[in-house]
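Researcher: Here's the sequence for the chain we discussed earlier.
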Amino acid sequence: MIKLFRKIRYNLMATEKTGSSADRVSPKALAEAQASAKAGRYLKYAIGEIILVVIGILIALQINNWNEQRKQNQQETNYYGKIKEDIELDIYNIEQSIYSLEERSEATRRLLVNLLSIQDDKSVILADYLSAVRSISFIPSKSAILDITSSGKLEILKNKKIKNAVLQYYAYQDYGVNTIEDNRDKLDDKIFNYNDFTDFGIQEIPMYRESYGTDLQALMQSSEWQKDPNHKLFRHLKDHMNMTIIICQREKQFLMNIKDRANQLIEEIDTTLNSN
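Model: Thanks. This is the structure I predict for it:
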């Protein structure tokens, strides 16, 4: 484009006339006029060159700005896609955790029914013990948001509505996960408060029997606490399982809330991506 402007300017300068009265003046005056005209043409040429350089710089800056904006828009779109992938994985993990919690709650209820029905055979109770004290924990997927925040690129998310929704989602997720972990820790403390593990019969739980072997099992006989509702192990297990049902339900509620927010955020991200 600059070459085109320069060619046009050269043509104008080449065809420029000094006036028809040049043949009526003296040679000296004519020479001075020609020198002045020549100087004027050089001045115009210099000014033209400056203008062309300035135009070229402005065009280059504009093109560079366009490219930078295009790159930022593409990076913003990529980040939305990565955030969406993390959230979709969150939903999958939440569903797995909720299913595990439901199985845990069912095992806990069954254990409590068998405990309170007073069993002669303690193995009926112990068969559900491990299933009643453990379940799959929800572990969030946060690689995208951590990459954005740690690299200081949060400003790349130009859509304020989506940005706020993303930040609010992860803020509530952190709150929910921290509360769940705190409740789990408190509940897990009850496991180690049995104290009399041998009397309880931890070694008689089906998963652990092979680790002890027949001879050692025979030497580590547990008590018949399951027949006495006033026995401290009976009461401790009853309270432990009672709280387990409550904590599991509380955890499920937090996870369901996180899942609802995740689905809403995915809808908003899809709307934004489809409009671009």
